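REVIEWER CHECKLIST
Item 1: Sequence provided? yes
Item 2: Single chain? yes
Item 3: Sequence as submitted:
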Amino acid sequence: MDHFENIGVLLQLIAMVMLLLKIVSTQDCTGLSGKAQILYALVFTTKFLDLPNDLKTSPPSFVLKVAYLFIAYLTVLSIHFIGTKHSDREHDIFRIDLLMGTCTLLALLSTHRNWTILPILWHFGVFLEAFALFPQIHLTAKTRYVGSSLLFYVGMIGCYRAFHIVHWLYLLSRGEHLENYYVAICGFGQFFICCGYFGWMLPIFKAQYAHLKNVDEGQSRVVAVVAVRVNGNLDVAKNASKSETSINN
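Item 4: Structure as written out by the authors:
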């Protein structure tokens, strides 16, 4: 991998870590799709089936892939066991079985000359990664809620793909051929999906922020009015007590 691809991988890992920390620290999964994270865990599982070889040939790559798998599955477990009190499970109803079936069919078609289990699973992961955000998009369309952590996560995933695209363009500019054009096609597709989703989420997030700001300002005004009234009542009571004291004297 060159520097562009390394930066992209690092950005994706940061996005995953930040999402996991948010879930664990707040125990709140509102607006987050557990099904989308299940799909990402499947993506990493099927794409990283060469872990035994990496352990011998490339230990850094082995460690990185193990980190991906660990964080992905820990995120899935956290959503389903830690953030159960604040979640949108009733709206997280996207049919991932249809999506997985479509990706399986695409994997079989793309490996029709070599129907062995490892290439089929690897291509399945490549195709599934391009569409893994669909359950999350469906959930956002249902709830119309966008948290700051989700906005950051999608933005970082888009940046991850952007750096991979720069890497592919760099290879082509040097006259080199891409190892697998399916990866590039799916990568471009995922990038445009992330960009469209991010652009759609941003106005929703801004509207939520403006609403919360107005609510906070309204609550502050109410508190101020109540405080003034309480202070006024206290002053009246003090004056009344002074008057009674002077009359008695």
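Item 5: Key structural point noted by reviewer: The first helix runs from residue 3 to 26.
Item 6: Recommendation: ____
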